[in-house]
Amino acid sequence: MKVRTLRSLALAACVGLLAFASGCDEKLTDIAGPSPGLTPTYSSISQNIFASTDSSGRTACTQCHTDQGRTPAAGLNLRPEVGYAQLVNMPAPQKPGAIRVIPGDAENSYLVQKLDGTPGIIGQRMPRNAGPFVTEGQMLIIRRWINQGAQNN
Question: Which residues make Cβ contacts (< 8 Å) with residue 131, sequence separation at least 6?
C-alpha cells in the first residue's frame, strides 16, 4: 500500500512539474506583438523590425537608415545586406565610446539604448517623431539576440 501511495505521489509530482514547466515556456509569437514571426536572429530582426513597417504603425528603420537615394541617418545603413556589418562591434559616431551592438551585452549596446530612449543618448529616441516605438516584446527579442552573441544568423 505504501509503495502504491509513493508511486502515486511521485507521478502526481512529475505531472505537476511538467505542467508548471510548460506554463513557463515562453512563446515568442505571444510577446512579439505586431511582428509575430520575429525570432532572436539577425535575419528576423532585420526583416521584421529594420526593413518593415509593422501593424502598430511603427515605420521601417530603413526609411531613414538607407543609402538608397540618400545618405543614411547617423551614417547607419540598415539594409539587410549591409546592416549587420554596420551594427555589431561598430562605434556609434554620435556618442564617443558607445558601440552600436556589443555581442553578449544588450544593456550597454547603443542600439538598445536608442530604441529604449535611455537617458544619456545623443539625439532622439528611435524611431524619431515620438513613435510608435518598438514594443516591449520586440525589444525583448532584440535583447535576446544580442545577449546570445549577436550572431549573423
Answer: 58
Residues 6+ apart with CB under 8 A from 118: 112
CA distance 49 to 145: 13
- pLDDT tens digits, 2-16: 545 545 444 444 444
Helix (H, G, I), strand (E, B) or coil at 88: strand
CB 122 within 8 A of CB 13: no
- Please tell me the pTM assigned to this model: 0.79
CB 138 within 8 A of CB 28: no
Whole-number Å distance between alpha carbons of 42 and 79: 12
- Compute the chain's Rg from CA coordinates: 21
Q: Which residues contact 134 (CB under 8 A, 6 or more apart)?
A: 49, 58, 115, 127, 142
Rounded distance, CA 59 to CA 64, Å?
10
pLDDT at residue 29 tops 70: no
**Residues paired with 88 in a beta bridge:** 101
Domain boundaries, the chain: 29-147
